[in-house]
Specification:
Layout: H1 4-20, H2 30-33, E1 36-38, E2 44-46, H3 64-67, E3 70-74, E4 83-85, H4 90-95, E5 104-108, H5 118-129, E6 137-142, H6 151-175, E7 184-189, H7 191-207, E8 213-217, E9 240-244, E10 265-269, H8 292-300, H9 302-314, E11 322-325, H10 329-333, E12 346-348, H11 353-362, E13 372-376, E14 387-395, H12 399-404, E15 407-417, E16 422-427, E17 433-435, E18 440-447, E19 454-462, E20 480-481, E21 483-490, E22 496-501, E23 507-508, E24 513-516
Helix pairs in contact: 1-8, 5-9, 6-7
Length: 521
């Protein structure tokens, strides 16, 4: 089995091999001198600047016939067997019996994938099931023939697929007699995200129509980072562009996703680069065979894939899935942005972000020409949604606390709501910490939502003696800590409570202590 380092090295090797696949001694050809190639009625595609910038190679898209793009349409009436549309076949659109009320969703996969992937099926089903979506249409943009290695060719292919998809959207718009495209929502993962950008750009350039929304799920970084907006997805491509970054770091660190903020709102869950539960690259990779491209990419792509898992869950989330504007993830963790305000806007991550953005827009709180970077914490497994609390702990400076002296351990807290529902427990610090009388500590912690804000807290003292650390030795008395109070401030519920131990008793190791507001004097 590969470890993280060897998997990263293997990934880099594979990316190089993908761009050199079947290469032989190269002689100048007509194609090398060719600057532009045209595919009527979709237009012409150039290989000149800016398509050469930050790219080790440059290809033309293959022909529409070679791409063989399939548009599989699902509605609540046909969830299992799709209606297959073609970008230029108006009769098939007329016979598809699409509901003009919409909404109209378009979902696209990325490199090495196809429209048959389970995540696409799950997302399509979630969108169709969503309340109020009775007339919804989900179209899967399946360009699997064009998503194969070499990577540079797949990058070129999405330019044509984007224009073809724009033609399909325009024909749907005409057949249904729509007045605008506000209700059209394109959702793309990795290379598929930039494909959505090309689609939105083509709609404006060719038909003077503006796509309602594009959601970029960890848009691909290789060949797109630090390029001009024409080359990649950006907020000019639709009325609203939202991005979920889940693997935004360099390729040599097993990163696939772009780090730059490129939408109206850019979400950086858990910092946007690595995700909890993906420390070892997801499921282990075993064995080597002719399908090593896919196996290695699967091994290291857990973080990259988490973006579409977040979005799918956001359709019907278990909690608000709120993210908050902050200058950086580090500042967010330090508790600099724990309330929703004009300086720290709050927007739910995923499907419902546009509704909140519109409300902020109506209140003149956002500038559509600028970007909002937002941060959140999630769980390591489904359901990923968490609620955020700023927790401030004060160690008592009482006579009893001073006599007891400092102690080394970890403090665990569990929130309890009015229905006696308990959250998961969270540690103030993963490692043992030296707590002194009078110390004050503040942390931002994320808990599973119980449905209501907490009214009490269960506190535990985790103590582990170490022969190498005399500060952990407790020979004559049990290890404990005198907590004067805990202040719990909720981001999502906008509530504050302060709880204290009964009779100012210490929190003793292996004993749970219930703290309530009424115990505070």
């Amino acid at each position: 089995m590969f470890n993280g380092t060897s998997a990263t090295l293997m990934l880099q090797t594979i990316m190089v091999l993908m761009d050199q696949q079947n290469s032989t001694t190269h002689f100048p050809s007509y194609e090398d001198a060719e600057i532009e190639r045209c595919y009527p009625p979709y237009g012409c595609f150039s290989k000149a600047y800016p398509w050469t910038e930050h790219r080790p190679d440059n290809y033309f898209p293959v022909s529409p016939e070679t791409l063989g793009v399939r548009y599989a349409v699902f509605t609540r009436r046909n969830r299992k067997i799709p209606v297959l549309l073609e970008s230029q076949n108006v009769d098939k659109i007329r016979n598809a019996n699409l509901d003009p009320k919409g909404p109209f969703y378009f979902i696209s996969h990325g490199f090495l994938e196809g429209g048959h992937k389970l995540w696409i099926q799950n997302l399509a089903e979630a969108l169709l099931n969503h309340a109020g979506n009775d007339g919804s249409t989900v179209t899967v943009v399946d360009w699997r023939r064009g998503s194969q290695p070499p990577y540079g060719q797949a990058v070129a292919n999405i330019r044509l697929v984007g224009v073809m998809t724009a033609h399909l959207m325009k024909n749907i718009y005409d057949v249904l007699g729509l007045s605008n495209m506000d209700n059209f929502h394109y959702i793309g993962h990795s290379l598929g995200a930039h494909l959505g950008g090309y689609c939105g750009h083509a709609l404006q350039k060719n038909f003077n129509l503006k796509l309602g929304r594009i959601t970029g799920l960890d848009p691909a970084a290789p060949y797109f980072s630090n390029t001009v907006t024409l080359v990649r997805l950006d907020r000019s491509d639709a009325q609203f562009v939202d991005i979920i970054h889940s693997n935004a770091m360099p390729l040599y660190f097993s990163g696939f996703g772009i780090s730059e903020p490129i939408g109206h709102v850019d979400f950086y869950p858990n910092g946007g680069s690595t995700q909890p539960g993906c420390k070892n690259g997801g499921q282990g990779y075993q064995g080597m065979d002719s399908d090593m491209y896919r196996k290695v990419v699967q091994f290291v792509s857990c973080n990259h894939e988490r973006s579409y898992e977040f979005f799918t869950e956001s359709v019907a989330p278990t909690c608000p899935f709120m993210a908050v504007q902050c200058k950086s993830y580090e500042a967010f963790l330090e508790g600099d942005c724990t309330t929703c305000s004009n300086k720290h806007l709050c927007v739910p991550m995923g499907l419902h972000s546009r509704d909140m953005y519109r409300r902020l827009q109506a209140s003149d709180m956002v500038d559509t020409n600028s970007n909002i970077a937002l941060y959140a914490m999630t769980g390591s497994s489904k359901p990923f949604c968490r609620v955020h609390y700023e927790v401030t702990l004060k160690v008592s400076n009482s006579t009893e606390s001073i006599l007891h002296g400092p102690d080394v351990g970890r403090i665990s807290i569990t929130l309890v709501d009015r229905n006696n529902n308990k959250s998961d427990h969270k540690l103030m610090n993963e490692e043992q910490k030296y707590y002194r009388p009078g110390d004050i500590e503040t942390k931002l912690l994320a808990f599973k939502d119980t449905g209501h804000p907490p009214i009490s807290v269960i506190v535990e003292w985790k103590y582990e003696a170490s022969l190498l650390n005399p500060m952990t030795w407790r020979l004559l008395q049990s290890s404990s800590v005198y907590v004067e109070y805990l202040k719990i401030s909720s981001l999502e519920y906008n509530t504050d409570i302060t709880v204290c131990p009964k009779f100012k008793k210490p929190v003793v190791t292996k004993l749970k202590t219930i703290m309530k507001t009424k115990y505070c004097t």
